[in-house]
Design brief:
transmembrane; about 180 residues; PTS_IID_sorb; mainly alpha; transmembrane helix; PTS glucitol/sorbitol transporter subunit IIC
Amino acid sequence: MDILVSFASGFMNLFKLGGEQFVSWITGIIPTIVMLLVLMNAIMSIVGPERMEKIAKFCTGNPVLRYAVLPFISAFMLGNPMALSIGKFMPEFYKPCYYASATYHCHTNSGIFPHINVAELFIYLGIANGVAQLGLDMAPLAVRYLLVGLVANFISGYATEFTTRMVERQQGIRLSREFKTAHN
């Protein structure tokens, strides 16, 4: 009987802990995300849809801008997960590719810019702790982490573009590669 009571108590405790986590999100990350959405929409309104579309069209036309520069700037300015929302300006074909690159940018840039993804900082800090215990400077590690990340994140976006083409052929579909403005 004690085992059954213990199991029931543990089972209910699981939901209690889940509720506490949910409340921490409501008072923590959710208001931050909402405020970032408000900021992003305000900036887009101030800049104007025509200029935002010109910037997006310019960045979409070049793979280096599409998978290295734009995701890096988005991650730096908006952090995780808001950096991913910039992909909404891309043509349908490039959206999964941008997402693949931008997702990684939210992780590999945290050595120098910890504000991008504070929740994942423990990965970098775990490595940095080992470097610090060896008595080495952590600044070169952070720079290398960033530079390797820029290259790897570009490759991730470009590789996803390649696999998206393969899926298109397999499924017999063709996603739009044209940039369409809201005015079309």
